[in-house]
Amino acid sequence: MKNYLFAPGPVSVPPEVLLELARPLIHHRTADFSVILDAVRERLKPLFGTRQEVLVLSSSGTGAMEAAVVNLIQRGEEAIFVNGGKFGERWGKMIAAHGAVPREVRVEWGRAVRPEQIEDALRAYPAARAIFMQASETSTCALHPAEAVAAITRGRDVMLVVDGITSVGVIEQKMDEWGVDALLTGSQKALMLPPGLGLIALSERAWKRAEGNRARGYYFDLMRELKAQRDDHTTAYTPAVALIFALNKSLELLHAETLSRVFARQRTMAEATRAAAAALKLELLAPDNPAPGVTGILTPSGLDGSKLVRLMRDRCGVTVQGGQDQMKGKLVRIGHMGYLGPFDMLVAVSALEIGLKQLDYRFELGAGVAAAQSIIARGI
Amino acid sequence: MKNYLFAPGPVSVPPEVLLELARPLIHHRTADFSVILDAVRERLKPLFGTRQEVLVLSSSGTGAMEAAVVNLIQRGEEAIFVNGGKFGERWGKMIAAHGAVPREVRVEWGRAVRPEQIEDALRAYPAARAIFMQASETSTCALHPAEAVAAITRGRDVMLVVDGITSVGVIEQKMDEWGVDALLTGSQKALMLPPGLGLIALSERAWKRAEGNRARGYYFDLMRELKAQRDDHTTAYTPAVALIFALNKSLELLHAETLSRVFARQRTMAEATRAAAAALKLELLAPDNPAPGVTGILTPSGLDGSKLVRLMRDRCGVTVQGGQDQMKGKLVRIGHMGYLGPFDMLVAVSALEIGLKQLDYRFELGAGVAAAQSIIARGI
User: Fold this and answer.
1) Which of A59, A242, A319 sits opposite B58 (nearest CB)?
2) Which of A213, A339, B60, B77 has the most CB atoms within 10 Å of its CB?
3) Which residues of B touch A58 (CB under 8 A)?
4) Interface of A with B in 253-312 (CB under 8 A)
5) CA nearest A189 in B: which residue?
6) DSSP assignment, residue B227?
7) Would the pTM count as exceeding 0.90?
8) CATH (residue range A15-255)
9) Average pLDDT score over residue span A237-259
């Protein structure tokens, strides 16, 4: 059975990129490797919307999150985090795990954090040194207003750290213009790669903060990594060479497509998926602020969402993801990141319809597919 | 020009393993992934010589070193480290970077640490909670006596952490029998993979130590990772899926060859390289305790070792590594790990000879190759 991957990461990888992974290894202390590393770091900048250095880490996206925590806050310091889902929650755990004091801004699952909540938190915790948030919360498929939060933090001595794991490469990021202090992502989402690389950029003032921080750990010490990557054109420790070569290829593909077309394609895929849900009378978990890279569709009440996800996978070969924690069995998350074109969304929606029919949900078969198709047609 | 990789990592990867990297991605929260992860973790045990759990981390070997540090010692605690080269030195920096107190056992480059030095250090620093050492120090190509050190630590409340990055898969490791408390390696050496995976096993008492340690960080928190990998058959965070599939293939190849033949092949390659050096009247940096996975040959005085390495690479397409720090320009390191057979060492030795000739070192061209060949012939 042919399999189709619509998870919000890992995602489908283009064959050209997979073949890059199969190339014989070269050593990482060579001019050949330096050329590739430099190219990758340069090609990432427009995706981050930054003129600052983008660093490549051999870790998952969670490792890049950890790098932000250990470099930008110190033990005992307070840090605000936006908890609107599993990944927001992770910020809190991570801050605590490193001996700092997490201060929570709670957001209902599916909602976006409101800028007033950030203002309130800054008033309540005037000693807070940083705010940690997601650009888009993968567990609830909700988009947070990173730009609006940056408008608050950029005039104050508070760092804004944004997890862009399901945003960078999906929608335009203007890190420098907005005033975001750290933006990070992982390789296995919009960058169309297998997991294994974390990517992070810091603002000028964040670099100053990191420099003044004497306890930056070792593996994720970004000052050390900056020196290695910027000055010596290599990494501080042995890097995931094969993935870096593959990243260079995938960035080449994205830039050849042009970023504006990439973002337009992403928008069409998201809109097609949302239109299908509406046509099927299904609601979104985040109707007012849907995430750009993954759509979270609530399963009709009384219908087992986990069973739906299994049916789609086992009968149709279509992998999507269910909900986590409180949304277990109640949510279907359809990812639209990676090596996908708008037409692929017809496959995802069709499998969703077939699964729903088998669970006796009442609707006209094909209604979702037709709605998705009209969105696609509009753009052609 | 065909290129030959004899670096002490990254190493040549078998084509079957490279092709595994080019396979379409599957999701890491699936039964298919669990089967592979379980297989990998099981197949690693004989290479570690342990019945304990071996965990897979998405990081380089340095990340696995950091995991040992943050899980087994706490801030303010003392830890002894054996500093006989660049990687020994790294233990010290890492211990300090995490707020613990490094206590150095200094070893001359090329020498092995003597068990008496460990006894002395334990007397001098009775509060030390752990000893960190290399099984084999890649920068000096020297083997340290991990077994003898374990004989000292296993009866005391001191953990022994061994970096086996250039030993696991090269020579037999008997972690359980010797009483080593943590043994770790990376994917890019004897395991014949690209870099990007760290692998670590802990002894029973090391797991207890980790459990009692409340500040284990987040990304490298091994208790969290143990629960995920042992109980849930997946990883705590998104893993480097493609590399894990490739590791499964490379372990399949190693076990098909049988470990005893793998170790015999490794021994032959090391002996052939050493015999060649002797025939060329070249000395080793570690003549009494040469490392099994990489041979460090001193360049004749007056001859520029960096130039030799460059000649071998640029004229012959043969990548070896020079010396670091105090050995810069004075050492040639020929790795014999990865996808190599004994006959490949003829290529490395031949390029070494040609480079030496071009730098006017006087010897009979072919003497090294002949010596290597006799060692190979002996085993056939």
Assistant:
1) A59
2) B60
3) 58-60, 63, 195-196
4) none
5) B238
6) I
7) yes
8) 3.40.640.10
9) 97
